[in-house]
Amino acid sequence: MVLKPVRVRFAPSPTGHTHLGSGRTALYNYLLARQTGGQFILRLEDTDRKRYVPNAETELAEGLRWLGLEWDEGFDVGGGYGPYRQSERRDIYLHYAKWLVDHGHAYYCFCSPDQIEKVRQQQIRLKQNPRYDRTCRLLDPDEANRRVSSGEKYVIRFKVPDSGKIVMSDLLRGNISVENQNLDDSIIVKSDGLALYHLAAMVDDHLMKITHVIRGSEWLSTFPLHAHIVRAFGWSEPIWVHLSLFLKPSGKGKMSKRDVARLGQEGYSIFLKDLENLGYLPEAVVNWIALMGWSYDDRTELFSMKDLIEKFSLERCTPSPAAINFAKLDYFNGTYIRSLTNDDLTHRLKPYYDVIGLIVDDNTLRRIVPLIQERIVTLDDAPVMSRFLLEDDIALDPTGFIDKDIDKENAIEILSKSKLLLVGLESLEPQTTEIAFRNLASVLPIKLPQLFRILRLAITGQAISPPLIESMAVIGKERVLKRIDFAIESIRYGTP
Asked: Which of 112, 340, 405, 472 matches a 20 to 30 Å C-alpha distance to 378?
């Protein structure tokens, strides 16, 4: 159990859309910080300038804030340990890289990319593990310094011990042991003078006093290098936590670009911005991703952010891969939608009507909400489900009115008598209207469900809709009568 305040960081690379895995990593860091009264830091690992996407920073911040995560320090809010963009910390990294070189833990490498590729191809032909052959590791330090001073192009590589093994401790996985002979002398500073993540992140974690490094399992492969770098400086290691991997919904393998495209066709996405646009509530997404890698017990499923802050613990996280279950997200989303007040749901739904150009004022939408709240799964379901309530014209299939018990004449007669009934009503107050139609059904040669089926088709254009009587009250008497007239004409002559 963590008791004292922690300092944790979420350190993404702004190279594309913010996905679920990033959201979960940020969430777990945030929960631990809030639970212990510590600090949650948002840091940008933006030294990969070739893959850098300028808009990704804005999308990242908006996505995290949409989830309800606020950071105490970061690239856009400042803090006492900035700057919080790695691209702005170049001189800091070069200072520490030079320290590693001066103390024998790193070296200058002058090998050209062509030389390295030739060696790599040779290793592949010999069925060896491709890696740098350490040519420059054997250079005399004085000669290396002379070549640097002369302006020769170079990178800096970390000097991994050539024997023994390194044992690292991961909170979820226990001790992990790796033979040093299987590790590469990785580049830690590129030829343009920019540090790679491997050095930059370790330096930043130390200088920013990070107590727990909670990150994705994709970093397990470079975990030995990172531990070596920290130990070369003689720094205390943070508590390392590598979270479980996300698998595709089938549970077989990681998500590919093809899988992502297929999800889009099915109305789902792994990107936070898309989930917002698709009508998912942030509360539901937070609840959903919290349980993909952590559980409180075998029974409890619904957790508010307050609940998660109180109950979350790293010890109850699991290293086992988690399949992305969108059916579970739909379940959570529907559950949270049904828990919202009328005003809250009205406020959240309004943008989804606006985006498709469906005009609805707040008062009308408040009347619509009770009709659809129990039926929608996502917020963007609402405009589709309630379009018939707002538009003047609806599409009709005149053949839909006819079945084995009702022919054209019967359908026209039922609608005509329904129209006369409605004309005689002062208003379409639901309780009064329902009683009137029950009385009408009692004198017709059909039962009430058959009457309502005919009316539903005429008034909504749909075989299935929100409650009919309440819907009529929202549509209004004039438009209801107009639709019944249109239905009668459609049945009699076919849809114009």
From this structure: 472
